[in-house]
Write a structure and sequence with these properties.
The protein is mainly alpha-helical and 177 residues long. It contains six helices and no strands. Helix 3 runs antiparallel to helix 4. The model has no long low-confidence stretch (mean pLDDT 87).
């Protein structure tokens, strides 16, 4: 039996809310951990690195919105040639952006202390934060076309599960590091 539209929307909203709750919980736990176990200087360096990484999000240039629109459209029309073309183009674009950001963060790790004042005892740790964010940028940007395609297909159940797994993994890795 086909699921009603109301049922589909309710299910999507439920998964979306569950994913947001997991994100809020893991971020609160991570914040409490950082405030208790990390010095103010090192926390400040991490905020600078993450802020810089966040600014680079403007490099999306609307490609994600195009993937969300055209993947389901081409799929519904069974236009697999254009579906493949839009997906492969976005994958190439996002991988190039990820590599550019990763390389920029890696390069910045060698002279960031000339831009912002960093106590010498945190210089190496700050550099490691740049390395971690560089690797993370390459992977995160490379995975964006998949996320946008799934969003366009309104599969918020999958997005919620993957995002929740990602948030929990980040929390575990933060404790490990």
């Amino acid at each position: 039996a086909a699921m009603s539209l109301t049922s589909k929307v309710s299910k999507s909203i439920g998964y979306n809310m569950a994913g947001k709750c997991v994100a809020i919980f893991t971020n609160l736990v991570l914040l409490a951990f950082l405030m208790k176990n990390v010095s103010k200087d090192l926390y400040g360096i991490s905020v600078i690195v993450l802020t810089f990484s966040g600014w680079l999000g403007v490099l999306d240039m609307g490609v994600g919105a195009a993937v969300m629109k055209y993947v389901p459209e081409y799929l519904a029309r069974k236009d697999f040639r254009n579906l493949e073309k839009i997906f492969n183009t976005s994958l190439s674009f996002y991988m190039a952006i990820g590599l550019l950001i990763g390389a920029s963060l890696f390069a910045l790790s060698f002279f960031y202390d000339r831009i912002v004042s960093v106590p010498s005892e945190y210089l190496i740790q700050g550099r490691y934060l740049f390395y971690i964010c560089a690797v993370s940028a390459v992977f995160n940007w490379s995975l964006l076309p998949f996320r946008e395609a799934i969003s366009g297909l309104n599969r918020f159940d999958i997005i919620s599960k993957v995002d929740s797994l990602f948030n929990i993994t980040n929390l575990i890795l933060a404790y490990a590091v």
